[in-house]
Amino acid sequence: MTRRLLLRIGLILLILPVFVLLGLYFLELGDVRDCVLDGGHWDYLDGVCRDTPQPFVPWVVRAPWLVNGSLALSMLGLGLTMAGLYSKKR
């Protein structure tokens, strides 16, 4: 692979998963805030507003493939970016 291609693919893989996770986080946060402002309790497992208190369940428990896959893609992107930066110019 050429140096430019390694850098481009590496930077895309380094940055894109973070933005996807942040986008999904803020979409869910908007739903949680709407539920709490209406006087309800957010059910993280079902993704609905309930009348009774619900436990907090983190993303790594609810969607481990999404969280760990995003981290793995970012690390792959970091490796490709570093390989692109360390390779010699032709």
Question: How would you summarize this macromolecular structure in one to three sentences?
Answer:
This protein is mainly alpha-helical and 90 residues long. It is 69% helix and 7% strand.
Task: Write the topology of this structure.
Blueprint: H1 3-37, E1 41-43, E2 48-50, H2 59-62, H3 64-86
Antiparallel strand pairs: 1-2
Helix pairs in contact: 1-3
Order of helices and strands: HEEHH
Rg: 19 Å
Q: Could you list the spans in which at least 5 consecutive residues all have pLDDT below 50? A: none
Tally of strands: 2
Shape: elongated
Number of domains: 1
- From the N-terminal CA to the C-terminal CA, the straight-line distance is 12 Å
- What share of the residues lie within helices? 55-70%
Output the structural class.
mainly alpha
Q: Output mean pLDDT.
A: 93
Q: Give a short account of the largest sheet.
A: 2 strands, antiparallel
Strand arrangement across the biggest beta sheet = 1-2
Task: Estimate what percentage of residues fall within beta strands.
Answer: 5-15%
Q: Total helix count?
A: 3
Descriptive account of the structure:
The chain is built from three helices and two strands. Helices cover 69% and strands 7% of the residues. The protein is mainly α and 90 residues long. Helix 1 (3-37) packs antiparallel against helix 3. The protein has one domain (3-86). Strands 1-2 form a two-stranded antiparallel sheet.
